[in-house]
Amino acid sequence: MTAQRSTSRLALIIWGYIIWSLVPVVIAIIFSFNDGRSRTVWQGFSLRWWWQDPNLSVLQNAEMRNAIFNSLVLAVATLLIVTPLGIALAIGSQRMHGRSANFVQGLTSAPLITPEIVVGSALLITFTRLLTAVPLGFVAQLLGNVTFSLASVVVIVRARLVSIGASFEEAARDLGATRWQALRFVLFPMLWPSVMASLVVVFATVIDDFVITSFLSAGVSSETVPLRIYSSVRGGATPALNALATLLVIISFTALILGLFALSTWRKRNGERGGLRAALADVTQMEN
Amino acid sequence: MLFGSNSGRVSPQDKLKKSPRLWAGFAFPGTIWLIALFALPFYAVACIAFGTIDPIFRDAVPQWNPLSWDFTQARQVLTSLATGPLRGVGLRTIVYVFCAMTLCFVVGFPIAYFLARHAGKRKMMLLVLIIVPFWVNYLMRMLAWVNLLSVDGLFTRFMRIFGINYNWLDGSPITVTLGLVYGYIPFLILPLFATLDRLDWRLIDAARDLGANSRQAFRLVTLPMSRAGLVAAGVLIALPMFGDYYTNDLLSRSPSTEMIGNQIDFFLNASSQPQNGALLVLTLSLFLLLLMSFYLRSTRQQSRQVTR
User: Fold this and answer.
1) CATH number, domain at B282?
2) Is A17 in the B-facing interface, judged by CB distances under 8 Å?
3) How many CB atoms lie within 10 A of CB B275?
4) For A268-277, what is each residue's pLDDT tens digit?
5) How much is the pLDDT for B303?
6) How many separate domains does chain B show?
7) For chain A, which terminal residue's Cβ has fewer other Cβ atoms within 10 angstroms, N or C?
8) CA–CA separation, B274 vs B279, rounded Å?
9) CA A60 to CA A52: how far, in whole Å?
10) Domain of B100?
11) Which of B107, B114, B144 sits opposite A11 (nearest CB)?
C-alpha cells in the first residue's frame, strides 16, 4: 500500500515537472500568433508577426532574417570544420599511448569542464590582444564554436570506437587490406552513427550558443538569433520576437528528428539494435 | 608492453598500436587547434591579468613575459573579493548556485528515480518528454518566463488572484535562483537517469528482503551505489551555473543580484577595465579547478573503497 502511494506521488512529481518545463514554452509559442503588440495579453489570432507585417514580422524584418541567416551559416561552417577535426582527434587520441597520449586526452577533455564564459572571455582577450589578425565577428565566432564543440565530437566518436574494438580492422588486415584500406573501408563506415550523432549535437549546440558567440561578436553584422533574443527580450519587443525564438526551436527539432531518422534507418539496415531508444542514446551520449 | 617486439603472436590491440606515428598524425591537427585556441588563450588572460595599465589611456597593457608579471592589481581584486565591494558578488554567486543545485536535486532525483525504476511501459514516452526541454534553446526558455513574469504577464496576474503582488523581474533573488533551476535542471536529470538506470535493482530488493525498510534501503544501498553518478551530474551543472550571467541579465538586470559572471561580462564588454575582467576569469577558473579536484579525489577514494 505505502509503496504504491509513494510511486503515485513520484508519478505526480514527474508530470508536474513535465508541465512546468514545457507549458511556459508552449505559451510563448502561442503568443507569437497574437494579434496585438503585446507578448503577454492575448488579443486574438493572427499571422501578423510571422509574415503578414511587411516590416516587423519575422520573415520580412531585415534584422531578424539576418540573424537567422547568421545562425545557420555559423552552425554549418562549424560542422564542416569540427567534424573531420574531431573524428581524427578521437581516433588518434584513442590509439596513441604513453605520455603524449595523456597530454592529448587531458587537452581534449579540458573544454568539457570549462564554463563557456571562461572560454569566451579568454578567446576575446586573445583575438583582441594576441592573435589580432583574427577579426571579431563571424571568423572569431567560428573559431570559438569549433573550439568549444570539438570535445563533444571526440567524446561521441571515441565511445563508438571503444564499442567497435579492434577486431574488424584486424580481420581486414589479415585478409590483405592495407592499414589505410582497413580504415577507409572498415572503420569509417562503422563510425557513421557517431558521426551522425555528433552532427546533430554540434548543430544544436552552435545554433543555441549564446555566450561564446556573444563575446566574439562584432555588432549587428554578426548577430545570431540567441543574441537578438537576448538584446530585445526586456525591451518593448513585439510577438515577432516570440516567432523568432519559435523558429529557432523548429530548426533545432528539425535537425534532431532528421538525425534520429537517419540513425535508426542506418541501424536497421546494418542489423544493429534499432529503435528510437538506441538513436536517442546516440544523440544524448554525452550525458550517458 | 610487447610494443615493437616480434615475439610470435601479437594480439590485435598491439598490432593496432604498432603505428604510433600514424595515430599521432591523426591527433595532430586537433591538438594544435586546442593548444592555439584553448591553452594559449589562458596564457593571454594571465598576461592581461598580471600586466600593467597604460598611464595615459588607462587601457590594460599585456605583459608577455611571465618573469615580469605584476601582481598589484591581482592583490587588489582578491582583497576586494574577500572584504571589499566584490565580496557580495562572490558570496551571492555561491549562495545562488548552492540553492539552485539543492532544488535541482530535490526535484530532479525523484524524477530520474521514477523514470529508471517505476516508469514501466511509459518509460520511453516520459523520457522523450523530459529530453524535449534539452533541445529548446536556453534563451527561448528564459524568454518564456520573462513573458509570464512581466507586470501584466500570465503568471503575475495568476498570483494576484491569491493576493500576491510581487515584482518578479526587478532584482528578485528568488526569480534568479528559480531561473537557474529551470535553465539547468534538464542537464541534471538525464545523467542522473543514466546512473540510476544502470543500478542493479536486485540489490535493493535483496536489502528489502533482508528486513530493511524502504528508507533504509534507499540510504544504505541506493544512495551509496549511485553516489559517483550523483556527484558527477552535480558537477556537470555546477560548472556552467558558476559562470552564468545571462539568466541574471534576463530575469533581473539589477546590481543587487549580480553574480561573478555579470562582473566578468561587465569588465570585459562594457567597461574599459579588461584587467579586472581577466583577474576574475582566473579566479573563477581556479575556484572551479579546486572544486573539480575535490570531486576527482572523492570519486577516486570511493572507487578504492568499492574495490576493497
Assistant:
1) 1.10.3720.10
2) yes
3) 23
4) 888 776 666 6
5) 63
6) 1
7) N
8) 9
9) 8
10) 88-307
11) B114
Under CATH, which number does the domain A59-287 receive?
1.10.3720.10
**Residue B5 resides in a domain:** no
Residue B36 forms part of a structural domain: no
ipTM score of the complex?
0.90
Mean pLDDT of chain A, nearest integer? 89
Domain ranges of chain A: 59-287
The reply to whether B239 touches chain A by the CB within 8 Å rule is yes
Query: Which chain A residue's Cα is nearest to B25?
Result: A92
- Nearest of A217, A195, A221 to residue A142 by alpha carbon: A217
SS3 string, chain A, reads CHHHHHHHHHHHHHHHHHHHHHHHHHHHHHHCCECCCCCCCCCCECCHHHHHCCCCCCCCCHHHHHHHHHHHHHHHHHHHHHHHHHHHHHHHHHHCCCHHHHHHHHHHHHHHHCCHHHHHHHHHHHHHHHCCCCCCCHHHHHHHHHHHHHHHHHHHHHHHHHHHCCHHHHHHHHCCCCHHHHHHHHHHHHHHHHHHHHHHHHHHHHHHCCHHHHHCCCHHHHCCHHHHHHHHCCCCCCCHHHHHHHHHHHHHHHHHHHHHHHHHHHHHHCCCCCHHHHHHHHHCHHHC
Taking CA–CA distances from A111, the nearest residue in chain B reads: B38
More confident call, A32 vs B118: A32
Interface touch B137/A226, C-beta < 8 Å: yes
Distance CA A163, CA A153 (A): 16
Query: What number of CA atoms fall less than 13 Å from residue B125's CA on the CB side?
Result: 6
> Quick check: A27 and B147 CB within 8 A?
yes
C-alpha cell at B113: 528515480
* Longest Cα–Cα distance in chain A: 73
- Residue B145, domain member (yes or no): yes
Read off the pLDDT of residues A201-220 as tens digits, 9 standing for 90 and up: 999 999 999 999 999 999 88
Neighbours of B120 (CB within 10 A): 7
Query: Would you say residue B2 lies in a domain?
Result: no
Angle at A286 between CA B106 and CA A17, to 5 degrees: 30
